[in-house]
Design brief:
The structure is a single chain. By secondary structure, the chain is mostly helical. Helix content is 71%, strand content 0%. It has helices at 2-20, 23-32, 46-90, 109-126, 139-149, 152-169, 172-190, 197-213, 215-223. Helix 1 (2-20) packs antiparallel against helix 3 (46-90) and helix 2 (23-32) crosses helix 3. The chain starts with a helix and ends in a 10-residue tail after the last helix.
């Protein structure tokens, strides 16, 4: 079981390190000779990158953040496969693999690996150790990771909800929060129906952190002072 736990830890740690890379800060300093944290809202994500560095700089930050989420999800699938193989090897002779609670049920090893990769990448982005455990809000990295953690279809549903939220309110934060709220709901389909409650709880807790990261946006929305697309700052 030591090898199984090791692969699960690896899924989280590698994804956390990937997520922690502050591409917004790196791109702003290397190519624009400024610190994105001193511009606009001070956030290191795509929206503020667009404000601080224009479309090209903002697009670069989005692609790089999306890429680290995508790679984390892919790495999670590898760890899930490695952990599953290690679990099969650890089973006593004559015990069918399908009878092990680690293959299905609340602590499915495959589901845990995927959920931990999702949590690692997202939390690494929100609490980057390279920035004093501060960071972005996690939407781009989390959405990209869901391509593997859920499915490409679920990712597209998240994108549609995100876009609808923006279209209806002209507030990027509304679309972001709506996508974060939808995440554990979709998780009920991909994990809850199989009884994988521990992976689902990890995903739900991570989504809650993303919503928490938008707490200032939520306060401005309640006060009616949130920035809207096309409005004068």
């Amino acid at each position: 079981m030591g090898a199984v736990i090791g692969y699960l830890a690896l899924a989280f740690l590698v994804s956390f390190l990937l997520g922690s890379i502050p591409w917004g800060v790196i791109v702003s300093k290397v190519f624009y000779h400024k610190d994105i944290r001193d511009e606009g809202s001070g956030n290191i994500g795509t929206t503020n990158a667009m404000r601080a560095m224009g479309k090209v700089g903002g697009a670069a930050v989005f692609v790089l953040d999306f890429g680290k989420g995508l790679f984390s999800g892919w790495f999670g699938t590898l760890c899930a496969a490695w952990a599953t193989l290690a679990l099969v090897a650890a089973l006593p002779a004559g015990v069918p693999a399908i009878d092990s609670p680690w293959f299905s049920g609340p602590v499915s090893v495959s589901g845990l690996a995927m959920a931990l990769a999702f949590a690692g990448c997202t939390l690494g982005h929100v609490f980057s150790p390279w920035l004093g455990f501060k960071g972005g809000k996690g939407i781009a990295v989390a959405a990209a990771c869901l391509v593997f953690v859920y499915s490409p279809v679920a990712f597209l549903i998240e994108v549609i909800v995100f876009a609808l939220g923006i279209a209806l309110t002209r507030c990027v934060s509304v679309g972001s929060i709506a996508a974060a709220v939808l995440c554990p709901i979709l998780g009920l389909y991909y994990y809850g129906l199989d009884g994988q409650w521990v992976p689902w709880l990890i995903i739900t807790a991570t989504a809650a952190v993303v919503i928490w990261a938008h707490r200032e946006n939520i306060a401005r929305l309640r006060a009616g002072t949130e920035n809207k697309i096309g409005s004068k700052k």
